[in-house]
Amino acid sequence: MAKILLTGASGYIGSHTLLSFREQGYTDIIAVDNFSNSHPEIYDRIAAISGMPVKHYNVDVRSDAFETVFTENPGIEGMIHFAAYKSVPESVEKPLEYFENNVSGLVHVMQLCKKYGVKVFVFSSSCSVYGNIDVLPVMESSPLNPPESPYAASKRIGEELLQSWAGTGAGIKIINLRYFNPAGAYKNGLLGELPLNRPANLVPVLCANALDPGTAFTVFGTDYNTPDGSCIRDYIHVSDIADAHVAAFVYASNSADTTFFRTYNLGSESGTSVLEVIRVFSEENGVTLNYTLGPRRSGDVEAIWADCSLALAELGWKPRRSLGEIMRSAWQWTLNYTKS
Fold first, then answer.
1. Does 235 qualify as catalytic in the annotation?
2. 151, 224, 235, 337: which one is catalytic?
3. What is the mean pLDDT of residues 134-141?
4. Do strands 260-266 and 291-294 pair parallel, antiparallel, or not at all (unpaired)?
5. pLDDT in tens, 198-221
């Protein structure tokens, strides 16, 4: 089996992807994370679930020490790059930090991949690169409108860097995965989203409020041009996202081409409003949530959901888990974690 390096491997999507690779027979995996927004204990949970310890390095991908990972693990064939900051509102507050981490970090990773002959590169991008879209659902060929946040801009720059690199005939096959809204947790609630900082994504906010409803959370924006006035997003189970990375790596590894850059949407292919997500979460888990209605938040787009037919046609991937499963698994993970 191939030797694969995952950066940001103890993060939300990285940890689930590590598990998905293991479940599909890949055992030679090296994990890297600096724990800027994750916990070392995640590796213990992965080991307990999979029955195998995780070979990991506590290192920042921007540092000189990151090269040690390559020298101590010769023959790395695949790079799955998750290491990035990802909060839209935080990026509005700290744009330079986002560009320095997300763009400079990527450049250093690319340099080492080139130096050590990595053949497959899977990039963690975002539907935010589309901006406020005019025609829905979004296809990979949809025009890219101006980014609504520094986070979105950093991801678009990353895509452009990788596409330019592949365009030079660099001998690396690059797959660019544009996630919509990952949510939920590993089956039976054994692993889930555990941000070190205050949660910014909707589902973890709902879980936190269900645990402690004393303080209301805010629904940002009720005057959008949507059926109930709140933003519409495409929520996709994190384990479906994880499975797509394995499918992307397999596809690229088996391709006879030596260099390419290809982009795929990863979503559920349906849009759900914020207020509808709140209703589904409450009904699926039998809890009451405490929230208030507030003004729009800077950096948010109005509505977006995916067309994923290209991923089905070329990668053989499609989402398999429902919105209800997303909500149930996220809540079960929250309950399991708070009891541990």
1. no
2. 151
3. 94
4. unpaired
5. 677 899 999 999 999 999 999 999
